[in-house]
Amino acid sequence: MKEVITQCPVADWDPRADAVLHNQIAGYDQMRRTCPVAHSEFLNWSVFRHADVVAILNDPETFSSEVSAHLSVPNGMDPPIHSEYRRIVDSYFTPAYIDTYAPVCRDIAARLACTLPRGEVELMGDFAQTFALQMQSAYLGWPQELHEPLRSWIQKNRQATLQRDRTAMAAIAFEFDGYIKDMLTVRRTAGSAAPADITTSLLSDKVFGRLLTDDEIISILRNWTVGELSTMASCVGIIAHHLAFKPSLQAQLRENLSLLPAAIDEILRIHAPLIANRRVVTKPVTVGGRELRKGDRLSLIWASANRDETVFGDPDEFKPDQNAGQNLLYGQGIHVCPGAPLARLELQHITEQLLLNTHEVSLIPGKPAQLAVYPAGGFSVLPLYIT
Q: Which of these, 23, 37, 126, 190, is most buried using a 10 Å CB contact count?
């Protein structure tokens, strides 16, 4: 069958068009069906189909992750250097590490769910973002007084990214670096009395026979923070909205909490918390019928690939058992998300506690949720009624 994409012009779409900003998922669905490898000034080449995204993920030699001049450990690295840094990162997501954190995770989730107001609630600000901040800070050993500065920092970073304001992005990165440098100074000054947490442990980690530099530690922690805080809050909102939108599924999960892990992964396949990831082409290559040149930049649209009809059928149909094997929620290949086990633990606990501590989570007629815009996924405002 002749590929539709061969008929597409060079300027194929505008990711910042009103229709796309109003509903990203619908916009990406349309592109996947009509022009699945498309060019735009804002995102360069966007790749929408599952098969194309998977092929790119599994070919780091042709599709490099070194997309920025700024240090990004290990997300922005290629083999063999990537492997050395990934070894350090993976060591903080072992079953043993996560098992010791599980009771803390459960306690935070239970406390937040117990104190969630009854009646009308704006779930993103009152619950989802607070959960993400508390969980991440507990895992890394960060002080409570950093919660609100980090909440503000996430919003500023998101807005600067959308506007492609590089001056603002540089200032925001400098602000974050200051938070981390202060914590590293505190731990170095404390010596043997420093907190026994991940942030302290990174000070003694080595790559290539030497200690990590401060810039490398800051990059690792920035990657965890940017990814974890905004994406985890988005996940919580997406799950809560889906359960409110599908009361029969909500009732089923309340009766059988063991179904939660598979259900959560499938809900987040249907509505992606993470929109896109970047690559750069290292040599001439054809992707989906489009001829790409060395140096061309790609945006892998997770929010589209995980809804590809050729893989999942009706992308909105809830089929956790059938779809699990092809779900790209946590990526694939050498850059598969190292924190996937931690994210799954956190999401299971917060969803479980939300169900255990409420009778019903419902949508509010006349008060629709407001969808987030790129680079965020999920919802910016989520009114729900809690009983």
A: 37
